[in-house]
């Protein structure tokens, strides 16, 4: 029995390492990975009804959380190198992964029917959201990297867990928080980890019930809003100023195109994998 307990603990720890991919890789959703690994429904139920069986569920998810922290630290070093050395090329691969998930998101958005107003929400979100994000720096200036911006980053990542298919890392890229986040993860900087953990927990506790209610009552509208954000934020990560094309060559262009295609395939495959294990 003791060996089974150790095995189950290690299994959940390893699952946490894989879910960490959804925290730091644009195009990969933590919610999708949690669904694939059989943790999503239990996790959402725990967050939505946190006082029920709190002690049992808390200790169940401890190894998942520890695995997530370990995965973040392990993956941050190679990711920082790639984004520092080949940023524009790598971003095209990430963009492809996000594009590959769009068919699944479109199918999910129509699961309970689709009305003309849903398309208006999608178009309005894409246009107005795109204009806002693109001009955000001109309006508000550069986003400072401080305790409150890390709270925001943690909250966005938590949304990617609550809503399978939503990858918040591309928003973090555009907000200028992704690179410093990876550097903080790489060095296990508690000034990054702690506020992100606080922001993530607050978002999970506050929005799990809200998201459950919205998806139950306004499923199509919520998903068309998400689609608008996903489409426009994906477009914006491959245009300046996020992507730097200085020194870009024909070879760089070909590699970017290749990684984009590979990314589309990977995102499409992961989406189907999620449907299989739901």
UniProtKB/TrEMBL annotation:
InterPro entries membership: VCA0040-like
Keyword Transferase tagged: no
Top-rank lineage group of the source organism: Bacteria
Keywords linked to the UniProt accession: Membrane, Transmembrane, Transmembrane helix
Transmembrane intervals: 12-37, 58-76, 88-107, 119-141, 147-178, 190-210, 222-243, 250-270
Entry annotated with the keyword Transmembrane: yes
A Pfam family hit: VCA0040-like
PANTHER family: INTEGRAL MEMBRANE PROTEIN, POLYPRENYL-PHOSPHATE TRANSPORTER
Name of this chain's protein: DUF368 domain-containing protein
Lineage start: Bacteria, Bacillati, Bacillota, Bacilli, Lactobacillales
